[in-house]
């Protein structure tokens, strides 16, 4: 999944862990929340970025740098889009993100 932050266009990449359906009777439509594990959008403990781009311009994400589970794991459906991941052959823990 790829999501946006309130501060503007800050890209987050993560993995869907659970789908939560909230059913409030006064509201005719259920509310759907996604619980996700996000890759940090910062430098890791070794000073390396957790996101990068390859020679072709594809986004790479380091899944070794996941955020703490309690750090805003829930998002609404409208805040995310589905993406696909492929392993980066030369870099363990890194994945190529395809929208």
Q: How many structural domains does the protein architecture include?
A: 1
- Helix/strand/pairing class, anyone? mainly beta
DSSP E strands, number: 9
Percent of residues in beta strands: over 45%
What is the helical fraction, as a range of percent?
A: under 10%
Main beta-sheet strand count, sense and barrel state: 5 strands, antiparallel
Rg over CA atoms: 15 Å
Features:
0% helix; single chain; mainly beta; 48% strand; 99 residues; 5-stranded antiparallel β-sheet; 4-stranded antiparallel β-sheet; elongated
Describe the structure.
This protein has one domain. The mean pLDDT is 84. With 99 residues, the chain is an all-beta fold. The protein is elongated. Strand 1 (2-5) and strand 2 (8-22) form a beta hairpin. The protein has no helices and 9 strands.
Fold topology:
Blueprint: E1 2-5, E2 8-22, E3 31-38, E4 51-53, E5 59-62, E6 74-76, E7 80-81, E8 84-87, E9 94-98
Antiparallel strand pairs: 1-2, 1-7, 2-3, 3-6, 4-5, 5-9, 8-9
Summarize the structure.
The protein has no helices and 9 strands.
């Amino acid at each position: 999944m790829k999501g946006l932050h309130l501060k503007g266009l800050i890209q987050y990449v993560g993995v869907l862990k659970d789908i939560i359906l909230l059913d409030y009777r006064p509201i005719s439509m259920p509310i759907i929340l996604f619980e996700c594990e996000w890759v940090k959008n910062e430098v890791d403990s070794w000073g390396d970025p957790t996101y990068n781009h390859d020679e072709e311009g594809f986004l790479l994400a380091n899944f070794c740098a996941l955020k703490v589970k309690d750090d805003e794991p829930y998002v609404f459906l409208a805040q995310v889009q589905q993406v696909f991941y492929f392993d980066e052959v030369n870099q363990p823990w890194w994945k190529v993100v395809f929208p």
